[in-house]
Automatic annotation (TrEMBL):
Residues 1-30 form the signal peptide. This is Extracellular protein. Keywords: Signal. Residues 36-205 form the WxL domain. InterPro entries: WxL_dom (IPR027994).
Amino acid sequence: MKQILKNSLLVSAAFLGLGSLGLGGYVAKAATTTTTTPTASTTPATASATLTPGTITIKSAPSISFGTVDSSADDTSYASLKFSNGLQIANPGEPTGWTVSLSDTPFTDGTTGGATLKGASLALDDSDATPVKADDTDNVSTAPKFTSSATISSAPVTILDAAAGEGVGSFTTSYNGGDATLKVPAGNIGGSYTSQLSWTLTNAPS
């Protein structure tokens, strides 16, 4: 009995000894990693562009038609029937500003030996809330100022006025059918009368 107990204690001690070591007698250690952050490097550079201003031009100017109407024994005002198109100005980058003025000549009949409409008067009255619009919706320039009501004569009257740095790009002034009036005093004879309209562009603000 004593011998058997002694062997049992030795066996237990042997198992305890193995239990205190790792497999093969080595203890495993966790692996470690090192992360290196790259250093940013910036090289200065530029982007450049030179925009050369072009020439401001009138791309289109309207004619006005009053059609065929009855002559009258009394003072009469005739409303226009239509404008041929709008007044369109193109400014490709010129910063000086600009103006457009309008004048006319006497209404003259080319079929009756040059008779004129004595005392006749042409007037514009554009009732559109926004008569002047940039042709490109993303235009960043200030639109030119518009004279909506004007009596036209041989003395030029300003219709559009762009201050320096404004009115850059393409702008169109629209007119509706009845936006012009021709006043004719009593005492004029019938005929086919025409007035020459002069839309004048000046490359400077008024």
